[in-house]
Amino acid sequence: MSFGIRSRKKWSALVPSARSVAPLIVAGTAGLVLCASAMAAPFADSTFIHEMVPKNAAQLKTKITELDAAIQQFPKLAKNYALRGANYNTLGEHGLALLDYNHAIKLEPKKQQWYEERSHVYFRLLRTNDAVNDLTKALELGPGSAKIYLARARGYELLHDYAKALSDADKAVQMAPKNSDAYVMRANSNSRLGNMEQCVADCTSALAIKPQKAEVYYIRGKAYAQLQKKDQADADLLQAQKLGLQ
Fold this sequence. Notes:
Layout: E1 22-23, E2 32-36, E3 46-51, H1 57-73, H2 78-91, H3 94-107, H4 112-124, H5 128-141, H6 146-158, H7 162-175, H8 180-192, H9 196-209, H10 214-226, H11 230-242
Antiparallel strand pairs: 1-2, 2-3
């Protein structure tokens, strides 16, 4: 297979039909929105993806054309494949993005960054096991970061391995104590494991950093309800509604 200039074959988006959801806020990837059904637990499972057409699509296509030429001139330079892969991924061409990251990793198999970035593609393709494996490989190849641990926690949450999700979220909190998303992920994991007091504490920490996050009030309100603290639950659920959560 040639990795030079190639046609822009459209890869079909893997987007199941929409249903009534409550948003799940996690460490984000550009253009990706994870959603969760409203169930008894504060968070349900993030099992489908809604793709958004990027506003800068024309710029992305121009950049891809420039990288086509660069790759044609320097076919052994892994960075250009990774850059083109990132642009394809943002554009929604996840299959082409995966081909580019595969080639970048073939050229530089010990580059931590390429595995971390390829995991974003796997998440878009709903290949969660592969995403988790890439993030694990990234952690093996270099120093850990809150971003990587938080992304892997998201993967474990999708795989229903809440104990591992909690462990990774805890590492993310330790490494980035001012990252509200780390507390939200840990709150989610704690709630799934029945640790409602810890869930409340994590939500409170997240709100101390970003007090206008409606979803976190919703999570904490549901946790309070599980703890039979009706007044606190009602207050949080009302605040979530005031902040725009439907």
